[in-house]
Amino acid sequence: MSKWLLLLASVMMAAGLEAQQLPVYSQYLFNKYLINPAVAGSDGYTSINLTTRQQWAGYQGAPQTYSLSAQGRLLKQKYLIRDNIFDKKIFKPHTEGKVGIGATVFSDINGLVRRTGFSTSYAYHIWLQGGTQLSFGLAFTGYHYKIDQRQIQFEDPDEPWMNTDFRKGIFVPDFNFGAYLLNRKFAVGLSVQDMMEGFIKAGSQAYRDLKIQRTYYIFGNYDFEPDNKSLIQPSLLVKMSEQFRPQADIGLTYSYDNKIWVGATFRTGSAIITNVGVRRDRLFFGYSFDFTLQSIQMSTYGSHEFIMAVRFGDTPRKYRWLDRY
Question: Residue 99 is part of a domain; what is its CATH number?
Answer without folding.
Answer: 2.40.160.40
